[in-house]
Design brief:
With about 325 residues, this protein is an all-alpha fold. It is about 65% helix and about 0% strand. The chain has a two-stranded antiparallel sheet. One zinc ion (ZN) binds near residues 113, 218, 222 and 251. One zinc ion binds near residues 222, 235, 251 and 255.
């Protein structure tokens, strides 16, 4: 794996390479540095907060998390189900609390990620290592292939959604307000918390933790875990990432069948997946329709695999990972 001493020793040369080539994205480096700094202040503010504020901060994890998983991921990026206007509005607001860029830009990058996974055109190409896939991709200019791919795909459905365009138009001010100020105003108004206590804890600290939980899908779930549905791909089944990202770590299934609304094979009693539960609950009250499932496709895929196995045809073997090749060269 690329978390070797060599990777650590390479950091200065990688940074100076990007610096010399003027590839560093300074506004993003400053922004991510700043939010981590105020999240650290949040860490030390926890003892000053009331129990209500701590509970509020905690429940903002699934609320903002679902704005990503149920909202921009499964609905707007993959169109794996249809949602009525009231639920779509709630998802847009929850997504804004998560503050991971506008729905439009998130969905655009994510569609490119699926179409060109583990290539130069993948915005967070995991073959470039854990750190790059996790957050390093935000710190450098996009690879020209990513920009080119973004121009070639069709995003007209996103442009036709007034909620998506409303959020895009007010980007980044609306999401910044919803992420940092709104949670503090709620705490101040309803249980008299000091504004800045809630700003640092329910706003900044919760935000940065949920950011890393989302980033783990691109890093850890692309590097660690099993590959039962597609042995050749990087994305894997990772229970820990599923816990952090409220059900988004069943990533081998998801990349094989991105149109599946559950983003996992089994039900929620077997695979931790609150995001699926939310979609099912919303379907039960008529807010969600047309949930797409990949089970029929997988039944055929598995039957094909079983036939091959019975005929003595071995499973295809994944190519060695770049760092495995590197490690072999060193030996
Ligand atoms: Zn992925
Ligand atoms: Zn996806």
């Amino acid at each position: 794996m690329d978390l070797s001493m060599k990777m650590v020793r390479d950091i200065p040369s990688v940074v100076s390479h990007h610096y010399k080539n003027k590839e560093l994205n300074w506004p993003m480096i400053i922004y991510v540095g700043l939010v981590h700094t105020i999240a650290t202040v949040g860490l030390f503010t926890i003892p000053k907060c009331s129990a209500e504020t701590l509970i509020w901060s905690f429940i903002l994890w699934p609320i903002s998390g679902a704005g990503i998983t149920v909202g921009v991921h499964r609905l707007w990026s993959h169109r794996s189900y249809e949602a009525k206007l009231p639920f779509r509005t709630a998802l847009m607001l929850m997504n804004s609390i998560a503050n991971q860029g506008s729905i439009y830009h998130w969905a655009r990058d994510h569609r490119v990620h699926h179409k060109f996974s583990e290539t130069d055109a993948d915005p967070h190409n995991a073959t470039r290592g854990f750190f790059f896939a996790h957050m390093g991709w935000l710190f450098v200019r996009k690879h020209p292939d990513v920009v080119k791919a973004g121009r070639e795909l069709d995003f007209s459905d996103l442009r036709e959604d007034p909620l998506v365009m409303f959020q895009k138009k007010l980007d980044p001010w609306f999401t910044l307000y919803m992420c940092f100020v709104f949670p503090a105003q709620i705490a101040q108004h309803f249980w008299g918390e000091a504004f800045w206590n809630a700003f640092f804890v329910a706003g900044a600290l919760r935000y940065v933790i949920v950011l890393h939980f989302t980033w783990l899908v691109n890093s850890a779930a692309h590097l660690f875990g099993d590959h039962p549905y597609d042995v050749l791909s990087y994305p894997s089944e990772n229970p820990l990432v599923s816990f952090c990202s409220i059900g988004e770590g069943w990533h081998n299934w998801h990349h094989k069948y991105p149109f599946d609304y559950a983003a996992s094979e089994f039900g929620i009693s077997t695979q931790f997946n609150p995001s699926k539960l939310i979609i099912d609950l919303m379907a039960s009250i008529g807010q969600v329709t047309d949930r797409k499932s990949a089970h029929a496709a997988w039944v055929m895929g598995r039957a094909r695999r079983d036939r091959d196995k019975a005929a003595g045809i071995p499973l295809p073997k994944a190519a060695p990972r770049p760092w495995e090749i590197e490690a072999k060269k060193v030996q």
